[in-house]
Amino acid sequence: MVDVVPPLRVSFSASKSIRGGLNKLTIRAYNLNQSNRTAIAKDAEDPSKHIPLSFSVGYDGHLKLLFKGTVHRGENFREGADLVTQIECLDGGFDHLNSFTSKTVKGKDAAVDAVLSDMPNTKKGKITNQGQLIRPRVLVGSSTNLIDELLDDGETWYIDNERLYIIKKGDVTGSFIPVISAETGLINTPTREMYLITFDTILNPSIRIGGLCEMKSQLAPQYNGIYKVETIVYNGDNYGSDWKQSITGTIAKGYKVI
What we know:
Strands 1, 2, 3, 4, 5, 12, 13, 14, 15, 16 and 17 form an eleven-stranded mixed beta sheet that branches. The chain has a three-stranded mixed beta sheet with strand order 7-10-9, with no helix packed on it. It has a two-stranded antiparallel sheet with strand order 6-8. The mean pLDDT is 92. It is mainly beta. Helix 3 (108-117) packs antiparallel against helix 4 (143-150). It has three domains: 10-95, Baseplate protein-like domain - beta roll fold (Phage tail proteins - horseshoe like beta roll fold, Roll), CATH 2.30.300; 99-168; 179-257, Elongation Factor Tu (Ef-tu), domain 3 (Beta Barrel), CATH 2.40.30. Helices cover 12% and strands 47% of the residues. Strand 13 (191-193) and strand 14 form a beta hairpin.
């Protein structure tokens, strides 16, 4: 196991979304020792090598999990006087590339469970109520491709911290509603376009994709209200000033907690 903690410099960027696909994280760790650099090294063309990764951030020693997944690519190079280890990670990436399902099942819930049983690193998150299958369903193929085939109209799936979520447009994954305001870290004036609100805050891992947040802006009170978080883009550098997240969400009307 490689444990990277301050005072080593670490910078990162991550993108999470409920709109399908795999969430991504890129980390740059500076001046690791030789054994750690070697342990993390991985070619993207070698999907069978499994290197799990957990990444936590926080303040004053209080850390919260921001990203959990596997190393897709790990490379080392020199940048000026520094030795840089750059790690590209995918949430659910190892299972996406390597899992295969061949089963016959009855019922939509059983189909989801069957696919997950062939994804050893992916657990079950929040799953919206599934429709019924009239006949037994033959499942053969890539496990994540089969999830796409199982979706009903208006549903989307994503993997967050190695848990599979399947949600509808009006679904949210939890009832906790963090408040977004100048006092809690709102950096800019929120903007809205085509029902999507976008704003920046200081990095706050308690705001999660698929969940809720409440906007309380003094400069743009017309946008105040409760929103469902759809995407979050994180950026951080523990030796620099970059420590924020950009959030996009939609107004949450008549939402259902699953």
